[in-house]
Give the backbone structure.
Amino acid sequence: MSKKNKSDQFFAEAKRHLVGGVNSPVRAYKAVGGTPLFIQKASGPYVYDVDGNKYIDFVGSWGPMILGHSAPAVINAVKKSLLNGTSFGAPTPAETELAVLIKEAFPSIDLLRFTNSGTEATMTALRIARAVTRRDRTVKFEGGYHGHSDGLLVAAGSGATTFGVPSSAGVPEVLARNTWVLPYNDVSALKDIFRTQGPNIAAVIVEPVAGNMGVVEPSMEFLTTLRELTIKHGAILIFDEVMTGFRVAWGGAQERASISADLTCLGKIIGGGFPVGAVGGRKDLMEQLSPLGPVYQAGTLSGNPIAMSAGLAALQTLKRTKPYKALETLTKQLVAQLRSDAAKENVAVQINSVGSMFTLFFTESPVTSYFEALQSDASQYAAFFHTCLKNGVTMPPSQFEAAFVSTAHTPAVLGKAAAVFRKAFKGVHAK
Ligand code: HOZ
C-alpha cells in the first residue's frame, strides 16, 4: 500500500503559493478527496510519485500520452531540438512539417494555425466563424468543454462540472447570452434551434466524441444532422478534437464518422506532451486569420520549436506504427473485464469507451448525455478511485473525465490494472 508523506508536505507548501496548490483545478483531488500525488517522473505506462511509489497511469497527462510516458522517439527529438535553442519568435521548418502531417490525417484541413493550448484554438475558431458569417451566436452542448474562454464556459463539463461551476463566475452575461446550449445527442433540440434561430447561428462547436463529461459517444444521426443543418443554414461546424484528434483514430472522430468539419481544433497529442493547440480547416475560413485576413490572433510561443519537434516525433511514430486497432481492442477487452467484475460485485456501473478512451459512470442507466452523466454516484467513483490509488493505479480524479490507454499499456500491464479494478469494485460495494 502506497504512502504519500512527501506529497502531503509538497501539497501543504504548494497551497501557500499556488491557488489551491495546483495550476489546473481537477488536479487538487477535491472531487475525490485526499492529497494529490506529486509526480517525480513517468515512464511507459507508469508514473512515480515523490515518495517513490509506482502507479499504472490511466490519466496520461489527460490525453497527450498515447505512446506512454517518456516515449523514446519523443524524448530523443526534444533533446536534439533543445540544443538548437528553445524559442525564436520566428518561423521554423518543423512547423510546416507538423502541419503537413496533420493535414494528411485530417483531409478537412487546408490550412492551420498553431496556438499554445486548446483553449486558444477554440477561441480562435469561434472568432473566425463570427467574422465570416457576420453572426454572433454559438451553439454548444451541455457537458461539452472547449477550454476556458468566456463564451464557452457555459454548461461546461470537465473541471467546471467537477467543481459545480459549469457556468463560471466572471463571464459577462452578454457573452453567455450569445451561447445557446443544447443537450448532447438530442437531434430534435438541434432541429428546433436551427428552425427558429438558423440565420443567427455563426457556429456549432461540438466534441465529436465527448470526453469532458466522461466519455459519451455521439449517435450517427446526431453528427449527420449537425452537418446537414450547419450547411443548410450557413453556420460553421467546429469539431473540438483536442482530446479525440489522433486518439480515437489517426484522423480523429471525423475519420470514424466520415464527416468533415469546417474547422477543427486540436491539442494534446499533437504536442507530444508539450503545450500546443491548433485550429485548422477550410482555406476560405482560415484565410480570415491575420496576416491574410481581418481576424487577429497571435502568440509569442506559438509554433514553439521544442513543442513542434515533440509533436512531430509523436505523429511520425503513430503514422508508422498505426496502433489504433490494437489500442481499441485492448481497451474493449479491459472494459469487458471491468463490466463482468462489476456485475460479480453487484456494482451498478456504465462503462463507455471509444477507441482508447473510457469512463466508468456509477449509475444504473446508460449515459448518452450530460444529464445522464450527472446521475452518476460521485462518491462511489471517489471510493473506486482511492482503492485504485492505494493499490498502484491512477485514474482521473473526477467522475467527469476520460481515462486513457496508451501503447505502453501491454496486456500484462492491463491485466495487473484489471486485478486492482476488481478490488476497487469490492470497495464500492462495501460502501
Ligand atoms: N480538466 C482537464 C482535462 N480535461 C484537466 C487538465 C489538467 O488538470 O491537467
Q: What stands out?
A: The chain has a mean pLDDT of 95. Residues 5-66+323-426 form a domain with the Aspartate Aminotransferase, domain 1 fold (CATH 3.90.1150.10). The pocket of (4S)-4,5-diaminopentanoic acid is lined by residues 24, 26-27, 62, 158-159, 212, 401 (CB under 6 Å).
